[in-house]
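Throughout this chapter, every protein is written as a compact record of paired, labelled lines. An example of such a record is reproduced below:
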Amino acid sequence: MINREHKLSVVRQAKLLGFGRGNINYSARLVSDDDLALMRRIDEVHLVYPFAGSRMLQGQFALETMVRCRNRCLVPVTTFAEPNPACQEEGGKVPNAWFARDEEKSLMFFAGIHVPQW
């Protein structure tokens, strides 16, 4: 359709063809299978709850979205801490309990779910 070697400018060719200049360099990209499956799921839920807005649907998809492979992560750590309410002094902050492996095997991994909005 658009010939970049033609004597007419690319903008003029687009105008004659009846589409905007912004569409000239646009190239469609393929949608991943995961995204297509999610779009199908949104359509299914929306057919059941046509009155549902984005906030209502958010709860429906929170767990489904988090357990997808692309949101799983493996985190390398050498030490980590967790709250230890058993050692809390009266009126004080909850202290952390620190964990670490021995010097030979100092690196360990946690498997988790990456949730960017948290």
About this structure: Strands lie at 72-77, 79-83, 96-100, 108-113. Residues 32 and 38 are 10 Å apart (CA to CA). The chain has three helices and four strands. The helical segments are 10-17, 33-48, 54-66.
